[in-house]
Amino acid sequence: MTRGIIMGDEKVKTDPSATALPEYTVGDFNSTTKLADSQIISDAEYNPFEHRQIEKPNSTAGSLIHLLKSSLGTGILAMPVAFKNAGLLFGAIGTIVIGLICTHCVHILVKTSHMVCQRTRIPVLGFAETAERVFQYGPPKLRPLAGFSKAFVDYALMATYFSAGCVYIVFIATSFHDVINHETGNDWSVRIYILLTMIPILLIGQIRELKYLVPFSALANLFIVVTFGITLYYIFKDSLNFDDKPMFSSFGTLPLFFSTVIFAMEGIGVVMPVENSMSKPQHFLGCPGVLNTAMGTVIVLYAVIGFFGYVRFGDEAKGSITLNLPLEDTLAIVAQILIALAILFTFGLQFYVPMDILWRKIHDKIPKNKHMISQIAIRSGIMILMGGIGLAVPELEPFIGLVGAVFFSSLGLFVPCVVETVFLWPNELGKFRWVLIKNIIFGAFSIFALVAGAYVSIKDIIALYTEDDEHTE
């Protein structure tokens, strides 16, 4: 999924009426905001929104566009294969339910962050800092876990975006593999195209200034819109046959359905930067609100593409619906090339996020005169490792399922439930502790998606290699 990252030069200025804070970059996933240990207060009158002073804040409409842009990407192209693993009826219902769960988890994360800001008199907190403060001022027995919780979110974000980058590399290579082999008659392996893809990847991944990534992002957005249009044309240009599509697929493939949809929809990493940069952050939650409007749109579009894409291509649906388009048509070839270029141009922005977190953690340990060469070496090493993972697992469908199961389910579903529970423990969990019960259910679902999705994905990957070995023999 194209995880568009809302970054920028906006700074949150310190508020004269609050405790002096270091400068905070709104776009950062790894904020350096600090708070004195004695700064817990009981002043319910403190409104963090009134104390945010942001240069170049985003309007409500702009924030909605940013959130939509971050959610609508390559993940939507994988929805038909998700429906293949669920069936028409279960896929439609399951997509809506998972979408609502993802939306709720985002909601409780942002709401908890607001309450932590109010309690600690900090105008704005990022994802990792919210988790840290919740544990730091939570139940006494859990306070030693504050540092671990922040580190866990930071490293989980890095792992999530690095692994998604591996999916990007495989996706780009697979798209060019199909087009070039078809047009030239070559029989090159997709692994050769992964190696070729690494050449521009290694160049784009060295860009460390966001302003230089803006033109790439703009082109990527244009290419994605055109590709969506072409894909919809092929889906609806002929009559659709619903009769041969099952309403429910099988229990064995459901974990892949869950993990693929979670991968496609979950954009937890971009939520806090979007909300933190709003001129009117009170418009983010609520009804209709930025979050509900964006996620409602996303759920409908994902369900429509998944449903009708599966009806059109059935069991032939691939990890990206663009790979199902007929290569005999020039328009289909254009769509494949454009989406591959869009993902290539988005890679720099995708790679910026985890590298920004990693560099902030290690740059103080490296002499300043070696920062340049160190950045080049570290970035190159990580990208080569990502390419190596792509070479090891060049199959798109199980790879997407594995990434969605392991990373997005834990970071997007499990962590928000834990954060809310710890913050409200023990006396603010509602009547009959319904908040605790609800979070246990959602947490259990995330663990199920993680374990079952990872198991099925790894099993499919092993099966693919076994089949390859049998064919070789």
UniProtKB/TrEMBL annotation:
Residues of the Amino acid transporter transmembrane domain: 59-458
InterPro entries to which the protein is assigned, alphabetical: AA_transpt_TM (IPR013057)
Single Gene Ontology MF annotation: L-amino acid transmembrane transporter activity
Pfam families: Aa_trans
UniProt keyword Lipid biosynthesis present: no
One cellular component term from this protein's GO annotations in UniProt: vacuolar membrane
Topological category with respect to the lipid bilayer: Multi-pass membrane protein
Alphabetical keyword list: Membrane, Transmembrane, Transmembrane helix
Subcellular location: Membrane
Membrane-traversing stretches: 61-83, 89-110, 152-176, 188-205, 212-236, 248-272, 284-311, 331-355, 376-393, 399-424, 436-458
PANTHER family for this protein: AMINO ACID TRANSPORTER, GH04538P
Name the record gives this protein: Amino acid transporter transmembrane domain-containing protein
